[in-house]
Write a structure and sequence with these properties.
2 domains, single chain, Porin, disordered N terminus, globular, 24 strands, 43% strand
Length: 498
């Protein structure tokens, strides 16, 4: 099954907020006996008023282990034991939650539903409870990192764990070790989240796995990036910094396959979903079906510049065998990017040429053609705490004449070039506790698009609420965003960080 790949994605991740103990009391404001309290009150008539928060009645709680907390003055007649009980209760109420064994993370619940009828899918688009637990362990010679998600997903309700697709009740996000054998050399090995490039939710030279299912159903933006099982070597110098990533077994995208998000199936001539799930030919041989990626980058005249290279496979099944089975054709990519300040904003540009190694001539209609992709973007603050960014993205098919002449009779040829324009607006309000954001993809030649919006409110350092939606639109059901119209959904979520 041949699908046009979305080049979207962001590495927006939410960093868990860590609750802090209250600061120690200023000198002279520690607990004392009742006589000292009375003396203070006698002196208060002639002493200047203390700033709010520094008088005895509102003194902050001492950190655990540094003394007894000082609560409000007790009414006359209450015994000392009753006072001790009340102060202990107050202290326990204000004490923040912390996970054992130094774990950090969050617990969240999300629910969402389709607002367009889709006979091939459930109405519920997302309904899950998730707990993420992470731990960093630093030793003299290495740093170990573990991050895993335990969750219950009511939509799929799958019990068997599959770490490649993220299904089941557990998803291992990170499990790696970082060592620095030399001052200029870092080596990280194991499961890790990898990203590079300068596009805003558009990935050209970033060929690390993405999770588009999570992206389209309303999970947090951090889940757009799927984990890689890889070795990353980073070398630093005054001339240039170099990164090399080796993935010993191919890591595909968690792509749109019909099991949760419907898509257009040209063989059926209609939108399909759970009635026609795509199951591609596996590429899971260690060390023979592997991937290589490299980047060299440095700062030139205030601009971050980079060169990229990749050898592996199309991350979605862009080929079809003679028997009709989807598979991942071989792929190589070379490209570059730059990012830097221009006229009060940030200019970005990136380009890459994709070599479809199993069809370099472009004459096989069942394997995706080679192509050139590029983007140009600009971002700046246009008003107080209001940021706007725009991008123009182009995709140009190679060997278009060979592709057109090899199509089966009656098959429509795709456009030689696809145009996409993106716009992002982000507004911070209420002391930056409320974030409103909208991101729109629009293709003027395919006449389709995708609008995603979010509103998140930070109740305090621990609690965060969010609501949003994923709106797909298009004139035809066989274009990329047009085929996803029945997946339009709204969602809500609440998260507790620790």
């Amino acid at each position: 099954m041949k699908l046009k790949t979305i080049l979207t994605a962001a590495l927006l991740g939410v960093t868990p907020a860590i609750a802090q103990d209250a600061p120690p009391l200023p000198a002279g404001l520690s607990s004392s006996d009742a006589q000292e309290e009375a003396d203070k009150k006698d002196r208060s008539s002639s002493a200047p008023t203390l700033p709010s928060g520094l008088d005895d009645n509102t003194a902050p709680t001492l950190p655990s282990g540094l003394g007894e907390p000082t609560g409000p003055a007790l009414p006359p007649g209450l015994a000392g034991n009753e006072s001790e009980t009340e102060e202990t209760t107050l202290s326990n109420t204000n004490e923040p939650f912390s996970a054992p064994f130094g774990l950090t993370g969050f617990i969240e619940a999300r629910a969402g539903a389709r607002i367009v009828s889709d006979p091939t899918q459930k109405t519920l688009s997302i309904g899950e409870i998730r707990a993420q637990l992470g731990r960093d362990i630093e030793t003299r010679h290495a740093t170990f990192r573990f991050v895993g998600d335990f969750f219950y997903d009511q939509v799929e309700d799958v019990s068997d764990v599959d770490l490649e697709t993220g299904r089941g009740f557990f998803d291992l996000r990170e499990a790696n070790v970082l060592v620095r054998p030399l001052e200029f050399l870092d080596i990280k090995a194991g499961r890790q989240i990898l990203t590079w490039g300068v596009g805003d939710l558009v990935f050209i030279n970033d060929l690390f796995p993405k999770d588009f299912r999570s992206f389209f159903i309303g999970r947090d933006d951090e889940y757009l990036k799927a984990p890689s099982d890889a070795i990353r070597i980073s070398a630093f110098s005054n001339i240039a910094n170099i990164e090399f990533v080796y993935t010993p077994r191919f890591d595909a995208d968690r792509f749109i396959s019909g099991d949760r998000i419907s898509y257009y199936n040209p063989a059926l001539g209609r939108t399909a979903g759970r009635d026609a799930v795509i199951t591609p030919e596996a590429r899971d041989d260690w060390f023979s079906e592997d991937e290589f990626a490299a980047r060299a980058y440095r700062n030139i005249a205030g601009f971050e510049t980079a060169l990229y290279g990749y050898a592996g496979y199309w991350k979605t099944p862009e080929g079809q065998t003679p028997t009709g089975e989807p598979f991942h054709p071989r792929l190589a990519v070379i490209g570059g990017s730059l990012r830097g300040p221009v006229r009060g904003g940030i200019l970005t540009a990136e380009a890459g040429h994709y070599f479809s190694r199993d069809d370099l001539s472009g004459a096989d209609p069942f394997i995706r053609n080679s192509e050139t992709r590029f983007l140009v973007g600009y971002e700046r603050e246009i008003a107080s705490e209001l940021t706007a960014s725009v991008q123009y993205v182009g995709e140009i098919l190679s060997d278009y004449a060979a592709l057109s002449s090899s199509l089966p009779p009656g098959a429509a040829a795709p456009d030689r070039m696809r145009h996409v324009v993106t716009l992002r607006l982000t507004k911070l309000m209420l002391n930056q506790n409320l974030t409103l954001s909208g991101f729109n993809f629009w293709s003027p030649n395919e006449k389709d698009g995708y609008f995603r919006f979010r509103a998140s409110y930070k109740l305090n350092d621990a609690w965060l609420t969010e609501a949003g939606g994923n709106i797909f639109y298009g004139s035809n059901e066989n274009t990329f965003f047009g085929q996803l119209q029945d997946n339009t959904n709204l969602f809500v979520g609440v998260r507790r960080n620790f």
